[in-house]
Each structure stands twice: as structure tokens, then as C-alpha cells.
Amino acid sequence: MTYISLYLIFFKIGLFTIGGGLAALPLLQSEALERGWFTLDRFFHMVAVSESTPGPIGVNMATYVGLEQAGIGGSLAATLGLVSPSLIIIVLVARYFLHFNEKPLVQSILKGLRPAVTGLIATAAFNVITVAVIPWRVFQESGNWADLIPPVNILIFVIIGFGFLKWKFHPIVYIAAAAVAGMVLL
Amino acid sequence: MSNEETMRISVLRELYVTFFKIGSVSFGGGYAMLPLLEKELSEKKAWVSEEELLDYYAIGQSTPGIIAINVATFTGYKTAGIPGAVAATLGMITPSLIIIILIASFLDRFDEYPLVQKALKGVNIAVAVLLISSVWKFAQKTVKNIWGLLICLGAFAAVGFAGISPIIAVLISASLGGAAFFLKGRERK
After folding, report:
1. Nearest to B70 among A79, A90, A183 (CB)
2. How near does any CA of chain A get to the CA of B115, in Å?
């Protein structure tokens, strides 16, 4: 696999992905399986590693796939391919946006838009809560009410929440504290 | 080197370093990294206001490319033009490159260690707390009347419960904002 074809494949994936990194996965999966790069098991393993490591999932996946196909050069080629469409398109959009965003019509559009984005953040918050704090899916499978309110998770949630309200530390502090709490208590 | 050039290079370095930092401590990307972006970009650096960050999310959500990279590119461009866009994006991807290359080379079964899984569960709990606080903070800034509240709840219900694509929510709410402009214009006449 040459660097150029890796770059191009990931350029295409970046171009046709709209939304979060998870949206890139189905496209990546069909590209990778079609080319016989990995078995499905291996692919899911790579997704699991990409979800367990820092950084956007899409970028992690591109790096991982590129690395397995063509070494460190391949990981660079794939990752740069993935982000190139963003660079080109966003620079074009940003140029117009920053030029027109003081116009009253655009201001009015943004006033409609921003509450919706707040709603989208609420959706993300809701999704994390129903996985990490009140695991709805686990409860649905087991039907056991005790699974819906795992005491240790809720305890960590309350303590981190209390700490957040009380002290204005950097978010990293709470993330690290919760990681340690998870390792010790969960 | 002129003073201005030195300044520009130091802004580019700051962009790179800031996004490197964000990339190395955010899990998942997308909205999960919003609290970090808000802290680093709006509170600490004042590169973009919180409202602008929301605008970039809306645009990043509905244009090609993954949201995290789109928001990084947008912020970089606004702060320092095309070189800024490149610096921010490279900063964002560098930690992924380093971490994935190291883990794939030495700890390929990384995700299966029980300690890693426990740590991640903990991280998600913190992300839940941080996102709730973001929702609260952004609601105060963006939901200013009954219409804003309806749009916010509508987007939440449509995307969270009815499985409607976030892009549709972005497009509809933008159209409503545009329509409000023309309706108000008519009232004035």
C-alpha cells in the first residue's frame, strides 16, 4: 500500500463523513473490508483501542489503519488524508462566515441556531449519562433495577459534580480524578 | 525577523500547543471535548467567544469532515488565517499519532486491560459532569426567550429521542432564525 493511495482513501473518507468520528466508521469499515485489510474482528478491536485512547476517534482510527498498512509513514499519510478535506472546506467556509457574520440576517440565523446547538450538547450529555452514570442499556438487557443505579458510579458522579461546583479547576483535573477513582473503585 | 513576524510565529506555536493539549486529554472527540475547548479557547486564551464556539460546532457538524477537526481548523483560521488553521489541526492530530503508534507497537491489547476499562468508565463520569455544566452555561447564553427554549428542547428531543440527524436540527433552526429576521423586518414597516 503506497502512501499516496492511503492518503487518497482517507481523503475520501474525510470528505464523505459529516458529523463526529463515529460517523466515519461505517465508511472506513466498508473501505477496509472491501480491500481485505483486516478481518471484522480486527477492525472492531481497532475501534475499541481508538475509543480507549485520547484524541478524536476518527483520527485515532486513521492513524491505526495507516500504521498497520504501511508503518509510521502510512499513519501520517492516512491521518493527513482524513483532515485535508476539513482544512480546505472549513477555510473556504470560514472566510465567508467571518466576512458576513456581522450582517443582521446572519445574526438572526445564528440566534436561531445557537439554542439548537445547546440542545445537541444536551443530547451528548444525556447519552454519556445513560452510559456512564445510569446505564440504561445494561438495565434493559438484565431487567434488574439494581443495574440502573450502580452506587459506585453515582458516588463518583456526585463527588466529581460537587468538586466541580466547589472549585474551578481545569476540566483535566476532574477527568484525571475520575479516571483514578474508576481504577480504584469500579 | 520583524516584531510582527515574531508575534505571528508565537501565535501559531500557541495554537499548536493548545490543540495538542486538547487532543491529548479528550476522549471520544465531538461534543465530549467541548468543555475542554471552552476552557482553553474561550476562558484562557479568549481566541473565540463561547457563542462563536457554538457557531463553529454548528458549521462543523454540517460540513464534511469530523467535528473535532473542523472546529480546530475554524478556530485556527479565525485566530491566525490559513497558517493558524494548519497549526491548530496539526496540534490536534499529533497526540493521536504518537499515542496510537506507541500503543499499537507495544500494547496492542490495550483496551482489554481491566484497569484501562475502569479508568475509561471513570473518565466518562467526569465527561458527564462537564457536559451538564456546559449545557447549563450555554443555555443561559443562548436561550433568551420562549422561542429559544422551544428550539433547544426541540433539537434535544428530535436528535436524542426521535433519531433525527443533527444536521436537520441545524438546518431547521437556522431557517427559523432566518425567518424571524424577515418577519421582524415586516413588523418594522
Report:
1. A90
2. 6
What total number of domains does chain B contain?
Answer: 1
B71 touches B56 (CB < 8 A): yes
> CB B51 to CB A110 under 8 A?
yes
Of the CA atoms within 13 Å of residue B84, those in its CB half-sphere come to 20
What is the residue range of B27's domain?
Answer: 3-110
pLDDT, tens digit, 9 for 90 and up, residues A119-161: 999 999 999 999 999 999 889 888 888 888 899 999 999 999 9
Nearest-neighbour CA in chain B from A115: distance (Å): 5
Q: Which of B62, B124, B177 sits opposite A112 (nearest CB)?
A: B177
The ipTM value here is 0.91
B144 assigned to some structural domain? no
Q: Is residue B14 part of a domain?
A: yes
Grid cell digits, residue A73 = 509513514
Provide the residue ranges of all domains of chain A, joining segments of one domain with +: 3-100, 104-185
Task: Give the nearest chain A residue to B56 (CA atoms).
Answer: A94
Torsion A47-A49-A50-A51 (CA) sign: positive
Please name the residue of chain B whose CA is at the shortest distance from the CA of residue A106.
B178
Judged by CB atoms closer than 8 Å, whether chains meet at B151 and A183 is answered as no
What are the start-end ranges of the E strands in chain A? Answer: 18-19, 55-56
- The 10s digit of each residue's pLDDT in B72-102 is 999 999 999 999 999 999 999 999 999 999 9
